[in-house]
Design brief:
Strand content: 5-15%
Strand order of the largest sheet: 1-2
Number of helices: 9
Order of helices and strands: EEHHHHHHHHH
Number of strands: 2
Distance between the termini: 52 Å
Length: 167
């Protein structure tokens, strides 16, 4: 499929907009998509969408006034700025805004933990850690349910897994 704008390059960016049962499709090459980037963002309102999701049912322990005052100690980004821009300033922002971001990420992704692909060189290590974390979660649930036989089995699996990982 060719780009709708330049009609020269192969379209690699495909956008579909549905408004009142009207479907509009736009197929762009990378170059035209970059040129239209800011225009498309304002049209599709990514930052507005994120801000709306951030406000939607804000259920973290801080009041709205306290949430507005949240600020990253490393880059100085405030939570209000994040809601306006739709982007975090640095890696430390995840810690600074953790209480507000966890429910937001859960709504957007359906989970707060990444389950996607990993680089092959660390895939085994990451999988082992994730499996261990899953076992520990199951252990806690078994203890809460007072299912001590299952908890003992899980404890043994955890010990075995930790021995393997430490070799």
């Amino acid at each position: 499929m060719v780009c709708n704008i330049c009609a020269k390059n192969q379209a690699t960016v495909h956008l579909t907009e549905i408004i009142d049962d009207q479907i509009t499709e736009l197929h762009l090459c990378e170059e035209c998509a970059q040129k239209k980037g800011a225009q498309m963002e304002s049209h599709f309102g990514l930052s507005d969408l994120l801000a709306g999701l951030a406000d939607m049912g804000t259920q973290f322990s801080k009041t709205k006034t306290e949430a507005i005052k949240l600020k990253c100690s490393k880059c100085g980004l405030t939570y209000e700025d994040f809601k306006k821009v739709g982007r975090l300033g640095c890696g430390e922002c995840y810690n600074a805004f953790k209480e507000a971001l966890v429910p937001l990420l859960k709504r957007i992704h359906g989970s707060t933990q990444h389950y996607g692909k990993s680089p092959k060189r660390i895939a085994k290590v990451v999988k082992a850690k994730n499996d261990l974390d899953t076992l520990k979660e199951k252990l806690q649930k078994a203890i809460q349910k007072e299912d001590f036989e299952e908890a003992a089995k899980l404890r043994d699996k955890i010990r075995e897994s930790e021995k393997k990982n430490n070799k």
